[in-house]
Amino acid sequence: MATAVQVSPRTAVIPVHTAWGAAAGVVGGIGMGIWMSVSRPMMDTAMITMVAGLLGSTNAFAGWLIHLSIALFAGITFGALLGQFAQRMAPGIVLGLVYGAAWWFIGALWIMPANMGMPVFEWNDVTSSSLGAHLVFGLLAGLAFSCIAQVMGKRTGSDAG
Fold first, then answer.
1. What span, in angstroms and rounded, lies between the C-alpha atoms of 14 and 2?
2. 39 with 28: CB under 8 angstroms?
3. Measured between alpha carbons, how far is residue 153 from residues 89, 107, 145, 148, 160 in Å?
4. End-to-end CA distance of the chain
5. How many CB atoms lie within 10 A of CB 120?
6. Which of 52, 72, 92, 125 could serve as 142's disulfide partner, Cβ 3.0–4.6 Å?
7. Neighbour tally for 103: CB within 10 Å
8. Which residues are paired to 45 by β-bridges?
9. Within 13 A of 160's CA, how many CA atoms are on the CB side?
């Protein structure tokens, strides 16, 4: 005997938002990764190699893999938490910037330094450059999410926001 499951339209939209968020996270992650690859705030060390240090490496490729994995997770979470509010360009950009700043606070000021035996919540050249990188992530992710929502909303004939 088969059982029918009823899903509300609101619940069904969460997987769509997470997929859009994943794509937006990759877009933001690529932009942020480029920033981190050229930014050298400490002893001529690129920020992307500092990310590799999370797993005990100094390899830029390892840094990119770690960084893009985090960006993918951040994008999926953005879509799940804020996707319903970020479907138009202006709110998407604003929410993306706020979200990028939140990730900077949690990730760059707390989690990463704590994992690397460095002082947490400290303002220095690395954290200030990292703030710029996280704002680039948020800007690009929010913009990409809103663009994807607009295009996909038109393709499916639904109102994207």
1. 25
2. no
3. 13, 32, 12, 8, 5
4. 39
5. 11
6. 92
7. 25
8. 42
9. 22
